[in-house]
Amino acid sequence: MTRAIIAALMEPTRNPVISATGLFTPEHSISNEELVESFNRFVDRHNSAHAAAIAAGETEALTHSSVEFIEKASGIKARHVLAKEPVLDPDIMAPRWDARGNDELSMMAEIGVAACRQALERAGRDVADVDAVLCAASNMERGYPAMAIEIQQELGIDGFGFDMNVACSSATFGIQTAADYIRAGNARSVLVVSPEITSGHLNWRDRDSHFIFGDVATAVLVEDAALAPADHWDILGTRLKTVFSNNIRNNFGFLNRAVPETEGDPDKLFVQEGRKVFKEVVPMVADMILTEAERLGLDPENLRRLWLHQANAGMNRLIAQRVLGHEANDDESPTVLDTYGNTSSAGSIIAFHLHSDDLEPGDRGLICSFGAGYSAGTVFVQRVG
Ligand code: COA
């Protein structure tokens, strides 16, 4: 045997798999009833404070929100948040907490670390064997240093970390990036962590969207199969797609101070054209899943479970139906948005984390995200154990 062949045989397998996942859920939850009661109090106060201008036709009266609408239009019944009281206080309607010093762990790092620790524990992984941390989320707490490096430091990982933002698709883009590091031999064990403090970018005073989001953190440990625990998920294939759209947008950014008159502008929070998103994203994602399944030689109708992005129950119903060829039941396409709301990139990972233990070795499924960008990511997996 030549030296090159011996060296190749000694190389690790470079076959990326999912070893384990972790989930941090904030203690506090807000029901639709609580949320609507607070929103409607804000509306009543606003309308009475502006009664003269409304009567004179100079400004429009605000309209009440409704529990029935929220549940029917989105499927959301509650959402977890890191700071419940200020969000429900009609005078604030935003999360609030004490500023943290540079020597204290930041908010995103704190909840990210909690999710990572659970993933490491479930995999039986020693941090000494982890090479990298990718913090993949819709919003970052600061420009730099990267959240991922702070999380890496707190966990005691010797390696590298960086942040990536692909909005609701951040986690699946992170999984493919981690898998590519493993395929290239640049890492053997990578944490993809998605701390989503979406309560910070949500406009809690906007009737059209005030009910959408919730806070959470997830972690996915992507590893070389040779290192992974016996019970893991083979990654059969990953595919990413982006198509520019202004229909989901958040204009907050460090250059906002260059345009001082826009400070406090609701445009610097999450905004969307929900109907357009619904109509444009459903076919884009269904086609992407079917094309990728074909490329991988998989029959989509034989997928045991779909762990779809958790934004809207109606979107998931339509996508699942097109993929599976029939109306999916809860077992085939589990829902977590009813209690978590839309948790951006973490949604499909929460669904996978909470609803995958019952699958048998050989069962195949799909983790799929979609959202702002537009962006979409598919991760086809198969249970091994
Ligand atoms: N309470 C009561 N009524 C409300 C309301 C509220 N909070 N918000 C809107 N409405 C009303 C509207 O005024 C409108 O009334 P009209 O028909 O008299 O004009 C009606 O309900 C329908 O509004 P619309 O915004 O068209 O609702 P929808 O059925 O499209 O549902 C979303 C809204 C946002 C739930 C839905 O479009 C959606 O989830 N889309 C996908 C969004 C998504 O995935 N985004 C990704 C984010 S990352």
Structure explained in plain terms:
The protein has 385 residues and is of the alpha+beta class. It has a domain at 233-384: Thiolase/Chalcone synthase (Peroxisomal Thiolase, Chain A, domain 1). 34% of the residues lie in helices and 22% in strands. The chain contains twelve helices and 13 strands. The protein has helices spanning 3-10, 32-49, 51-55, 67-74, 84-88, 107-123, 147-155, 170-184, 274-295, 313-324, 337-340, 347-354; strands at 16-24, 28-31, 78-81, 132-136, 160-164, 189-197, 215-224, 232-242, 248-250, 270-272, 305-308, 364-371, 375-384. The strands form three sheets. The protein has a nine-stranded mixed sheet, with helices on both faces. Strand 4 (132-136), helix 7 (147-155) and strand 5 form a beta-alpha-beta unit. The relative contact order is 0.17. The mean pLDDT is 95. It binds coenzyme A. Coenzyme A binds next to helix 4 and helix 9.
Output the helix-strand order. Answer: HEEHHHEHHEHEHEEEEEHEHHHEE
**CATH class category label of one domain:** Alpha Beta
What is the SS-derived class? alpha+beta
What is the tally of helical segments?
12
- Major pleated sheet: 9 strands, mixed
The overall pLDDT, averaged over residues, is 95
Task: Report the bound ligands by name, code or SMILES.
Answer: coenzyme A
Strand adjacency order, main sheet: 5-4-6-7-1-8-13-12-11
CATH H-level name of one domain... which superfamily? Thiolase/Chalcone synthase
> pLDDT below 50 for ≥5 consecutive residues: which ranges?
none
Assign an overall shape: globular
CATH topology of one domain: Peroxisomal Thiolase, Chain A, domain 1
Radius of gyration of CA atoms, rounded to a whole number: 22 Å
Number of strands: 13
Q: Percent range for helical residues?
A: 25-40%
Strand percentage:
15-25%
C-alpha end-to-end distance: 34 Å
Instruction: Identify the CATH architecture of one domain.
Output: 3-Layer(aba) Sandwich
EC number: 2.3.1.207
GO molecular function, one term: beta-ketodecanoyl-[acyl-carrier-protein] synthase activity
Protein name: Beta-ketodecanoyl-[acyl-carrier-protein] synthase
GO biological process, one term: fatty acid biosynthetic process
